[in-house]
Specification:
The protein has eleven helices and eleven strands. The strands form three sheets. The chain has a seven-stranded parallel beta sheet, with helices on both faces. It has a domain of 220 residues: 3-Layer(aba) Sandwich (Rossmann fold), CATH 3.40.50.720. Strand 1, helix 1 and strand 2 form a beta-alpha-beta unit. It is an alpha/beta fold and 329 residues long. 40% of the residues lie in helices and 15% in strands.
Amino acid sequence: MKERVLITGASGFVGYHLIQEALKNNLEVYASVRKSSKIDHLKLLDIKYTYPDFNNVDLLAAEFEENRYDYIIHAAGVTRAKSADEYNQINAGYTNNIALALLKNNHPLKKIVLISSLAAIGPLNTLDGVITEHTTAAPVTAYGKSKLLAEKNLKAYSSLNYSILRPTGVYGPRDKDIFIFFKQVAKGIEPYIGNMQQKFSFIYVTDVAKAAISALYTKGYQKTYNLSDGRYYDRYELGKLIKETLNLKTVKFHLPVNFVKFIAIVLEKYSSLKNEAAVLNTEKLNELMAVNWYCDISEARTGLDFAPEYDLKAGVSETLKWYKANKWL
């Protein structure tokens, strides 16, 4: 009999790739989606759908009892929200409710894997140094703080076996966030904020998915791992690789920091009037202008047997192929 995994946030960017990797590993996949979720891209996959209420611990417990999952990969969450409370309610609150529901479950779960974010730790303020699992957490956004709170919520339940994964900037087919930059460069526009030196790190989405599936089976108990492709890149490398792959030239320019902050404030106010989350806000600038996002992945290499398949050049090439094939570009 196949082992059974629940994947939350299954209709999302990372969720789709988690499903693909779980199926490759002969797992029976239950995809947690909302009734309103767009799932056309999932319909050809051999999966079952479920619609948990993450705000109701008792209903969650009944769901877990009925479906008797062996594993859970919890990837549901929001990267944009209207307030810190909304981030915390969804990113941290859902995690806490899942943990509480699991404690009521008579069918013991083998492991839960939480997809957190390197934003939960936050960047370094100098170009020297590297972020490790032991770096003191200092998130610079409400999103990062909510992810850190989600981690703390899960760690509070000592009887649960978990792995926490902290991927850095995730990109790849179906991504809509870093895609904004891909789209600008493809149009011949290459904008940057200010003129500071920076170290960025990235990870291709299928490498995240492989790490998550590997985490289900590792013997490590209650472990946390940072994830990237193991390298760091200067602020121009992503744009350079997009241009090389598409064989085009761009107009590169640097926007004054204060001007971008003004635009972010305007977008915040406009989005607030529409009761929407802003694509760019003053907090997001804290991440975009951070000095150093380089992270060490030696613990993931050892604990998860993690060997990233894609560096940024290979990942950008595959991502652009998908964007073009699916007419995003």
